[in-house]
Every structure is written in structure tokens, then in C-alpha cells.
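Hello,

I think I submitted the glutathione job twice by accident. Can you confirm which output corresponds to this input? Input:
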Amino acid sequence: MDAITLYGSSDSGNCLKPKWVADRLGISVNWIETNAFDGSTRTPEFLALNPVGQVPLVVLSDGRKLAQSNAIMTYLAEGSDLIPSDAYERAKMFEWMFWEQYSHEPAVAVRIARLHYLKKREDELDPALLTKGNAALARLEQQLKETPYLVGGALTLADIACVAYTRKAHLGGFDMSQFPAVQCWLKRVDADLGLSPVT
Ligand SMILES: N[C@@H](CCC(=O)N[C@@H](CS)C(=O)NCC(=O)O)C(=O)O
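Support: Only one job matched these inputs. Its output is below.
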């Protein structure tokens, strides 16, 4: 695939997901740092690229644009071993990716953003975020006690989607000692992607 231009924030798991996939598959990335906290996603120039005003956003070599982290990963990984060829396993991969966006990211990523990046106090946060985030981490733990990766015994986009904010969950005040299988999986996926653990 030709080089892509990726607008993203280096602090954002959603933005790093497609970067990790591109790096693993040898796709060159022209990364344009676009910070969601400083208004850069709401400038007229950026809104002309993505009317939703969110990163990540990819611009392909022919000028076509694509938003949504999991959609971008799916496009980049087409035909690679990050997407199972078996129809059922592929659908299981999507099951985890849709679940991540609805049941994991809105709690885990939001607590990380509020506590770690926006420096809010615990008592300023909606307590439901902790309950919902712990439920998501427990769901991962349940699966990862059984299998080394989420789907089919090998790294897929499901792992990359779910690892993006799980690897920073402690920064959102989640007690990861409750989730030992998740911790082993984080080490495994970080090693697969060549990432240093988040401290
Ligand atoms: N579901 C989207 C979420 C994207 C998203 O929430 N992006 C944040 C940064 S992580 C953003 O651009 N926020 C700026 C805003 O919404 O104004 C995805 O997975 O790409």
C-alpha cells in the first residue's frame, strides 16, 4: 500500500491503533499530530477533512478519507494475518471490536482522559465509569484466562483494538492486579507490536 497520512494525537489509543497496524504491515505513515484537547480537531481546515471533528483520520494517497479507528485498521489490514480468513473467527474479531467501542472505550478511555490528562479528581467523575470499566476488564479477563489472544490463538485486530486503552487503564485508576490474565496478554501484545509497557 502507498504511504498514508494519519491525523492523530500521540496520547490517544484510538489514534495509535491504525499507526500500530501500519507499522506492523510496513505501510509508511505521514503522522500529523492533531490534538483533540487544544481545538485542533475543530478548525475549519480539519472539519473540511472530517466533519465529525475527531481523530484518527486517514487520508489515502489518492485523497480518499477514512475515519473511525477500527474502520481504518480494517482497511489497512485487508488481506493480512491480522484479520482471520475463517468467516466465524473474522466475525468474532468484529464482535470484540464493536464491543470495545460501546462497552470498553467509553468507560476506560474516558477515565484515563479525565484523571490522567485533564487532572480531574476522583470525586468529580461519574462513578458509573468505574463500574462499567471494571466490567469490561473482567470480560477481557474471562476470555484471556482461556486463550492467549482474543480470537483464534493469534494476534488480530481484536487484540489491537482492546489493548489500546487497556494498556493505560491503570492511569485511569483501574486496579489491574484484579486482572492477571489481562496483564499477561498486555505484555504479549506489547511485545508483538514492539511497544514498551506503559508505566
Ligand atoms: N469512535 C472513534 C472515536 C474517536 C475519538 O473519540 N477521537 C477523539 C480523540 S481519542 C477526538 O478526536 N476527540 C475530539 C472531539 O471529539 O472533539 C474512533 O474510534 O476513531
